[in-house]
Amino acid sequence: MENQSNQKPNELRTEEFVVNIGPQHPATHGVLRIEATLDGEIVKNVQPHLGYIHRGIEKMTESMPYKQSIFLTSRMDYLSAHINNHACSLAIENALGIEVPARAKAIRIIMDELQRLTSHELWWGSCAMDIGAVTPFFLGFRDRERILEIFEANTGNRLTMHYIVPGGVMRDVLSTFVTDVKELLKKIKGYRHEYDQLITGNYIFQHRTQGVGYLSKEQAISLACSGPVARASGVSCDIRKLHPYDGYENLDFKEVIDYGCDNWARYVVRMEEMNQSIHIIEQLLDNFPTGDYRTKIKGIIKLPEGEYYQRVETARGELGVYIVADGSNKPYRMKFRTPSFSNLGAVNPTTVGLKIADLMANMSTIDLVIPDIDR
């Protein structure tokens, strides 16, 4: 009897099935559900499902004075809290025509770059663990802890600092700040070789990342990716270079761009960005300004009626703050363009056709912070 199916004799029959990756416990700080369609171990489609940690931050800003609404942004990308507050403060300052003192600008940039270091150190450890290495996770937290101690000593907080405000910073840094940060950077440089010994030069890690998770330059632009994800695909998009703010235009540093377009390129970009952050901080410490740490402004902020936009470079890419003001002490509308939301679109094109284990590696190098997506 003639075989009516398209299946060849002795050919293994397969069929597609759907696996839910997440959501994790709904009380955790970041919850994302990935619906992965598989044929065996091969990924046919990846569909992210959002909204598990949506808190209505954008809507809440409409009922809060400008000064208070700034600090809601600390809880979006909580690994870029300083930088998020910086973006909102800049938007308000530009609307009011406020000039920030040089000392405040230097403190802001130092805090931003220390924040970038803490984020990349945490990413390095968790990325390695997602791919199968446990030790780097503990080392990443060990190294990040030293920076958090600087944050705690000078701002009173470790994660959501609420330190950068319109006009400057909440309070001046300690008299030992410059010495403390220089000593910190010395320690950071001293242990960077451990990162290369454990992971960068590790053959297994290289095999899992090189040539895996390909995202072309055209795809990165089409998906509006930003930050290390886009720069690893050859896209020049560093806001600190393209639209400098608070003195970045006066600093010597490189925009780190790689053309590998894969997981390895995204790893290399972040590792080099850590070196550039150290270089930026050292320049400011060597010429640390004196003077005021904040410009005095009115206790109640009222923005002139109009529309205002400000962008900054967080640890994950471009954060845009769009404010519609009606002349009152509260924003009529505040909208955030967050990098994790745009970068999430890269999960599908980098993964389809690969194996399920590669999905974990891809998501690690894309480096998503889920509350930054849901808002």
Automatic annotation (TrEMBL):
Signal peptide: none annotated. It is an enzyme of class 7 (translocase). The keyword rRNA processing does not apply. InterPro entries: NADH_Q_OxRdtase_suD, NDH1_su_D/H, NiFe-Hase_large. Residues 130-375 form the NADH-quinone oxidoreductase subunit D domain. NDH-1 is composed of 14 different subunits. Subunits NuoB, C, D, E, F, and G constitute the peripheral sector of the complex. This is NADH-quinone oxidoreductase subunit D.
